[in-house]
Specification:
With 202 residues, the chain is α/β, with parallel strands linked by helices. It has one domain: P-loop containing nucleotide triphosphate hydrolases (Rossmann fold), CATH 3.40.50.300. The longest helix has 20 residues. The radius of gyration is 17 Å and the shape is globular.
Length: 202
Amino acid sequence: MTTNKHFQSVLIFGCPGSGKGTQGVVLGQMSNLVHSAMGDIFRALDKKSEIGKEFLSYSTEGKLVPDELTIRVFRHHVDSCVETGEIDRDYHTLILDGIPRTVAQVGLLQDVVEVKRIIHLVMEDKDALIARLSARAAKSNRPDDADRAVIENRLEVYERETSPVLDSYNKKLIARVNADQPPLAVLRDVANTLVGVISPAI
């Protein structure tokens, strides 16, 4: 069997509260899918390793992690998973959540992943979205995140940063999914966008 050079991948995009983490976790339960959330990858770094120390030099000061380092951390993670057998390039499709976040990262990922589909979770009901984020913030005991002005700013930043990233890909790859629906209905629609796109589980 010829080993693929690239990791077959599906990208999940969605504003805060759209449910991309929920959908990614559920999809990751399929035997041939691996949910790779960049936030989890960062948190799992060995803080004593060289790459972990480099990450901490930014995160502990509240600075954004540079694009080059973000991609290096991602590559280190997936390569390690290949070595341990957790990921098989010829069998698994990665569900990428939180990466790429910038146009620069799109370019840096080109020799690492082959994008098979982009799932764009769209919430048109802004009031419902803000209510969802407020409730989530209350459950997480993060009252500052429940402030409407803070939430609206996060949504504006998302739209400003994400639109150029989506525009970097062929529009034929992008599937818009209505995320205003209940989670199971969203999952149904997400699954339908992947039929025939990714290799079937064996």
